[in-house]
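Please decode residue identities from the backbone states below.
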């Protein structure tokens, strides 16, 4: 890799670069964020730092596994096109598999093709147009609730999390957030657990 101009942070025994990445994530999250659209340094501080130091493409270590990170748009297009089938999808981590199940991000080959075909219909232009009334109704409900909080400070993160769940419930399942509240709460907790384990070293022989 080095002979091809690909550089990256040094490897640390067992942990790779995970400890450094986790520390950067904690530091970034502990500071208040300015009112800006430039959120990359906040949400992905480790990647942001590596790109600044080593360029658009760099070598990083996820535990004992080396990974080539590419952010150059042309290379990304080449990988996504994958016309020669040269780029296989990596096996998902155990906890990702538990959260996502057998879905488009975790499966390959013919099974992936069938799922992709089914998903295409849901995201077709006409299908999305049919979802607009439900989206408008969800936003209307939220704004109505906000009228009682005029002039008061409130936590909008939770409000928009609720709005997202409400839109998904109405458009995908024809119900409401309150009807599926327990499921959404469990998914939120599972996502938090995955977040805590994301940077933990995974030794192939052990798991």
């Amino acid at each position: 890799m080095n002979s091809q101009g690909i550089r990256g942070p040094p490897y640390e025994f067992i942990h790779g670069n995970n400890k450094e990445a986790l520390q950067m994530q904690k530091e970034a999250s502990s500071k208040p964020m300015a009112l800006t659209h430039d959120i990359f340094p906040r949400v992905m501080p480790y990647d942001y730092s590596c790109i600044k130091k080593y360029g658009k493409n760099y070598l990083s270590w996820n535990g004992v596994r080396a990974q080539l990170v590419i952010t150059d748009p042309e290379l990304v297009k080449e990988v996504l096109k994958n016309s020669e089938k040269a780029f296989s999808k990596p096996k998902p981590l155990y906890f990702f598999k538990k959260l996502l199940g057998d879905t488009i991000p975790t499966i390959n080959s013919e099974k992936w093709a069938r799922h992709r075909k089914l998903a295409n219909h849901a995201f077709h232009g006409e299908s999305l147009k049919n979802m607009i009334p439900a989206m408008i109704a969800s936003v209307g409900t939220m704004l109505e609730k906000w009228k009682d909080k005029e002039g008061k400070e409130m936590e909008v993160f939770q409000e928009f999390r609720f709005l997202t769940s409400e839109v998904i419930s109405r458009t995908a399942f024809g119900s409401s957030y309150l009807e599926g509240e327990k499921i959404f709460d469990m998914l939120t907790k599972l996502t938090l657990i995955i977040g805590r384990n994301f940077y933990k070293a995974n030794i192939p022989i052990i798991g």
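Observation: The chain has a mean pLDDT of 83.
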